[in-house]
Amino acid sequence: MTPNPLAKLCSGRVHYAWVALAVTFTMMLAVVGVRSAPGVMIVPLQRAFGWSVGTISGAVSLNILLMGLTGPFLTGLVETIGLKRTILLAMLVLLAGSLASCFMTTPWQLYLTWGLMIGVGAGAGAVGLAAAVANRWFATRRGLVMGLLTAANAAGQLIFLPVLAALAQHHGWRSVSITVTLAVAAMIPVVALLLPERPSDIGLLAFGATEEPVSPRSSRNPFTAAIHGLRRGAGSLDFWLLAGSFSICGLSTNGLIGTHLIAYCVDHGIPEVTGASFLASFGIFNMIGATASGWFTDRTNPRALLFWYFGLRGLSLVILPFTPFDMFSLSAFALFYGLDWIATVPPTFALTNAVFGRKDAPVMMSWIYAGHQVGGAIAAVGAGAVRGLTGSYLLAFLTAGLACLLASLLVLRIAGAPAVVAAAE
């Protein structure tokens, strides 16, 4: 097959897999911009409509939950209509949800837009689709690639959170909805034009490959593909250990910190924009941590990495409420916790590939990520309820910290059965 103009442009300079990676990375930035918005909207929505933290965080919880639960079916959809079409379909749903949210005035509309539609559409940036891109375009350096795609979440926080917080403070919550709508709209043509379905479509092999893998398109519908993956995982202890530890990851990151840190800062007299800046600063360290984690995952035992990631995260969550909660302690937390936030993804992906094989890894990773989002949803609504009942986030932080310490022990048992690995392909 004759390479298309895009491949010709890169010929002799860089493999087009890196361009596909850059497009996916940028697309995920836009998705993260939408996903990060609720954290800066809690206080403005309270002021505008008098809604409680519990009501708003309930919609955020639904958002997080649906993003995870629809992931396996979106990944299954890749097998039937293709990767690009699946991503574009999800982004169109995301665009419709963020645009419709500009006109909401009642809680049910909040749940419909920020909960249901954006929760489903945000699946475009979910781990399962990132895993599909990594496995399809790269035969080597997959750990690094997943680290970089994971770092898109961090970069999105860094870019969007301070801007969105300033907009919410000075121009109201609707300016946040408008901004993220424009960001998603700008990315749809980029994905449509610059992300080929697979390397062979432009006359290339995957990066590092010496032959084209046999990958016939599945005749199963997305539901069947997703349920087949769940059935396979349900009979594997390794799957439950991966999903359980990753659910604790979600509980302690986007569920607790991503949703409630700004409100926690406001409780301590720290302005919203300052709190958003602290949360955004995590992005710098997240990018470093995720990329470094991908590099280490290609070279060392991923179980050992997960042990340290969860253990250190748990200690930081337990310690934070007992600090002075001033600029120094928050800066130290941002550094320590930021490096660890999304570093768990590359080793989890590596273990999923090892246990279930490269072909099934995207669907299995989607189900494991569903566990991540279930944990995040529980923390988003649970921490809001704890705050409402006790007037403090203390119990929420202690619970999340202890859960992380438990996860650090669970991950040491993952992929312990050679027979499972032998059956992976």
Structure report:
This protein has a single domain (5-198, 219-422), classed as MFS general substrate transporter like domains (Growth Hormone, Chain: A, Up-down Bundle), CATH 1.20.1250.20. Residues 417-425 have low confidence and may be disordered. Helix content is 78%, strand content 0%. The chain has 18 helices and no strands. The chain has helices at 5-10, 16-49, 53-81, 83-100, 107-121, 127-137, 142-171, 173-194, 222-234, 237-255, 257-267, 272-297, 302-319, 327-340, 345-356, 361-390, 394-410, 418-422. It is globular, with a radius of gyration of 20 Å. It has 425 residues and is an all-alpha fold.
In short:
The protein is mainly alpha-helical. The protein has one domain (5-198, 219-422): Up-down Bundle (Growth Hormone, Chain: A), CATH 1.20.1250.20. It has 18 helices and no strands.
Strand content: under 5%
Give the end-to-end Cα distance, rounded to a whole number of Å. Answer: 28 Å
Largest sheet: none
Molecular shape: globular
Number of helices: 18
User: Which value, in Å, is the CA radius of gyration?
Assistant: 20 Å
CATH architecture: Up-down Bundle
Q: Secondary-structure element order, as H and E? A: HHHHHHHHHHHHHHHHHH
